[in-house]
Amino acid sequence: MITDKIKNIERYNIPKEALLFIKNLTSDIAFGKYEITKDIYANVESYNTKLNGKFERHRKYVDVQILLLGKEKIYYTDVENLDEYPFYDEVKDISFYDKEIVKSHYVILDGTNFSIIYPNEAHAPQIFYEKQEPVKKVVVKIKYSSLF
């Protein structure tokens, strides 16, 4: 997992189409799914942060997660540390893990930074930081195979 300030996002191997989308983000962007290219799309969503969560993993896509409103913690760990549930949803590209997140490392997204999460990294997003609060988030999904 990579976490850095948004002003530094061009330092990373993010396709130019995704970078253009990210650079043009404003807090008033409408909720929904945005098709950027055949291998890149973005989801703009809103939710209330949670007290706890489960690790999840994507096998086909890299996530670039950015908050437009609010703060949240994202816990993370290497998938080698986890026992996978016996289910992987190929259509949604997601599997979940049954392990307590609280003893794992975390980063805080606060609107000034972003996180890049790769397929070998499990993450538990949407966790409250100082208080439960509404957030607005953009998750740019980049097909991992298109990066190389």
What does this 3D model show about the protein?
The protein has one domain: Jelly Rolls (Sandwich), CATH 2.60.120.370. With 148 residues, the chain is mainly beta. The two termini are 18 Å apart. A hairpin with a 4-residue loop joins strand 7 and strand 8. The protein has a six-stranded antiparallel β-sheet, covered by helices on one side. The protein has a three-stranded antiparallel β-sheet with strand order 4-8-7, with no helix packed on it. The protein has a three-stranded antiparallel β-sheet with strand order 9-6-11, with no helix packed on it. The mean pLDDT is 94.
H/E element sequence: EHEEEEEEEEEEE
- Count the domains: 1
Strand order, largest beta sheet: 1-10-5-12-3-2
By CATH, the superfamily comes out as YhcH/YjgK/YiaL
- CATH topology, anyone? Jelly Rolls
- Shape type: globular
SSE order and pairing:
Layout: E1 2-5, H1 16-23, E2 32-37, E3 40-48, E4 55-57, E5 61-69, E6 72-78, E7 84-89, E8 94-97, E9 105-109, E10 113-117, E11 121-127, E12 134-143
Antiparallel strand pairs: 1-10, 2-3, 3-12, 4-8, 5-10, 5-12, 6-9, 6-11, 7-8
